[in-house]
Amino acid sequence: MSCVSATYSIWKYQRHFRAAAKYFAERVFKALDQLFEPQLFLVGILADLDVDRLPACVEPERDFWIDAERFNGVLALAQSLIPTYPETGMLQSHPLAQQRQEKALFYRSIRDAVKKTVESESAAGSSLRYSVSLPTRLEGYLVCTVLGLQDDVIRGYYELKRSVVRVHKHRDAEVAVSLIDAATNDLLERLRQELQKPDPGLAELSIDPDDIIRAAGRLLCRNTVTRIDRIEGRHDLFNACSTISSLGYEKSVASGRMILCRKGHPSILPQISLLKPEKLSKYRAARKLFQLASDYLSLHSDSEEVFGLVSLRDYDEFQEDLFEMHVLGHQHWELNHAGHTLMKVRYGVPSLPRLSFDEAKLRSDLARIFRSITGEDISRLVKLIRAAEDAAHGALLIIDENSAAEAHRLRKQGMSVHSCLLTPDLLRQLTTVDGAILLSPDGMCHGFGTILDGMATESGDPSRGARYNSALRYVESAWPRLAVVVSEDGGIDFIPDLPPAIRRSAIDRAIAEIKELRGVTRISRARYDSALDFLDEHRFYLRQEDCDTINSIVEFVETALRKQERAEVWIIRQKFVPNPQLNEELFYQQE
């Protein structure tokens, strides 16, 4: 990968910075949800108007969906936005403080103007939701990072409605509406800080994706406090909740609920009030009080003090000023609003709530795995899996065409039964016993309470429980099989979780696209990157001959591009290798 040309260049290593930033964005958001495919680009607005340079630049420079010229009006738009901010009417007593405020408002207006421009230029019905960083002054430009995330993935999770809280008449506080939003804000701020370093993009970015997710959880908690009492999260609610959930009390594991809202909130009814409120930061005392909290009674705190026990009555969720912290077990808690989970935290690591399974994908996967299964069989299995989702202590279902023989083979480590057609009600009863339920694809039950066997596998995940890993070993020992793993804390996994089937012709077209570049005088970087990015994202589907062809073409084209663009620094691409798990019958759609 070469350095940028002089025409649209902001600084020398902008392409490398964007590539590294996109890599970290992918790691952060795929850790939250594998369906995310982040788009990331840079926008530079010329601040030094007395120099002869373009008024706006975009990285990628060429053949991108939005041209740099579209941002030529950002400065004028930003000036029109400044009077709309409540802080504009507030005068500072010291000239330096006034200057800092004016600079902050100007940078905020640049960010908002870039965001408005991006949203107005994106195609109607765009599938991406865009966020923009505050600008960094670099080589005479104000440079913003723009991040686009799939809107349908975001909407799959609960999010709050208000992103701004009025602190007083001359000040608004921006607040995250979800864990995804908090992670976006933290990543964009870290990238802004990276842009302030010398030659950003030349050295490796100092970004830890895991730390961003932890910081996002802390930010979401601070913003929750801001919503509660209009202060900016002075109290470390995240650390308090994590610490309290880690403490035992007289050999019992932590559990209980805590209502987070201001004192005197109209939606709480005090039941027991402490004469002297207890500090939430006194973790052992707070943990002791959690023993009193139940489904009916909750502790009441404003994030600084615990006032006693309350019950909840009519709450207007549109106010977004009352939240619930629920301790689920040892170092396991969640933050809720109006019955919806905003964030789960286990051992200090925040995550999104596990979603119910995608029924359309499950139906498709069942038909791909079990070739003789009928539509009626699929509908029956879907109902059974829906019932298994409700199991209080989790569940494990094994669907196997040879389940009768397997139940007999494993009869000494489970209950082998006369075959019977399983119903959702009967399945709920069977899930009260530890072990796997053995089913055939037609919904017939052949065993329950079964301890599975299977060879050790490199695919195991030590961070997951024994139920998940035993199912993984068992499924990998024979085919076709499907394991349905329902965890105790909610969420469901399918083993295998099949990648979607694609048309073989799509692979052939992408290979043909880069083949054609060998014979052109000037190679289109955008055309090459587009085709190669597609192949890179679909490595799973490549045969040996595909990889041999692609590797040969990439070596030729990359050499030509380095000469064409006079590259001083470039990225070495990872060689393409065939996937031993590729099953063409499963993963190639019929043309």
Overview of this protein structure:
The protein is an alpha+beta fold and 591 residues long. 37% of the residues lie in helices and 22% in strands. It is built from 17 helices and 23 strands. It is flat, with a radius of gyration of 28 Å. Residues 1-6 have low confidence and may be disordered.
Give structural attributes.
591 residues, alpha+beta, YojJ-like (1, 8-stranded mixed sheet, 6-stranded mixed sheet, disordered N terminus
Q: Could you give the topology of this structure?
A:
Elements: H1 14-32, E1 39-46, E2 56-59, H2 74-81, H3 95-121, E3 128-132, E4 136-138, E5 141-150, H4 151-154, E6 164-168, E7 171-174, H5 179-195, H6 209-229, H7 237-246, E8 256-260, E9 268-279, H8 283-290, E10 298-301, E11 305-312, E12 323-329, E13 332-337, E14 340-346, E15 349-351, H9 359-369, H10 375-389, E16 395-400, H11 403-409, E17 415-421, H12 424-430, E18 436-439, E19 444-450, H13 466-476, E20 481-486, E21 492-495, E22 502-503, H14 504-516, H15 525-537, H16 544-565, H17 584-587, E23 588-589
Parallel strand pairs: 8-10, 16-18, 22-23
Antiparallel strand pairs: 1-2, 1-5, 3-5, 4-5, 6-7, 8-12, 9-11, 10-11, 12-13, 13-14, 14-15, 16-20, 17-19, 18-19, 20-21
Q: Share of helix among residues?
A: 25-40%
Which strand-content bin applies to the residues? 15-25%
> Looking at the structure, what is the overall shape?
flat
What is the mean predicted local confidence, pLDDT?
90
DSSP helix count?
Answer: 17
Spatial arrangement of strands, main beta sheet: 9-11-10-8-12-13-14-15
Instruction: Please report the distance between the alpha carbons of the first and last residues.
Output: 36 Å
- As an assembly, this protein is single chain
Annotation, overall tally of beta strands:
23
**Low-pLDDT regions:** 1-6
Radius of gyration: 28 Å
Helical/strand content category: alpha+beta
Report the major sheet: 8 strands, mixed
Number of domains: 4
